[in-house]
């Protein structure tokens, strides 16, 4: 299964996001991971933000948590 995660703020997400994306702000990602996000460590995960910076941080956090198939798609404009 493919998961698409928008790591921008809720306000940015509300202004427009890629179809099917869930919003998990990068500053809340570690908390969500420790609370047991419903993701299998082998599932494909794509993260994005406005320009790719926060998505890079999110990718690193996910990989350190043991997720093996994480892609940084860069900015939201790359997905819309």
Number of domain units: 1
CATH architecture: 3-Layer(aba) Sandwich
CATH topology: Oxidized Rhodanese, domain 1
Number of strands: 4
Distance between the termini: 20 Å
Large-scale geometry: globular
Main sheet? 4 strands, parallel
List keywords for this structure.
Oxidized Rhodanese, domain 1, alpha/beta, 24% strand, 32% helix
Describe the structure concisely for a colleague:
By secondary structure, the protein is of the alpha/beta class. The chain has three helices and four strands; from the N terminus they run E-H-E-H-E-H-E. This is Rhodanese-like domain-containing protein.
How do the helices and strands line up, and which of them pair or pack?
Blueprint: E1 2-6, H1 10-14, E2 22-23, H2 26-34, E3 44-49, H3 53-64, E4 70-75
Helix pairs in contact: 2-3
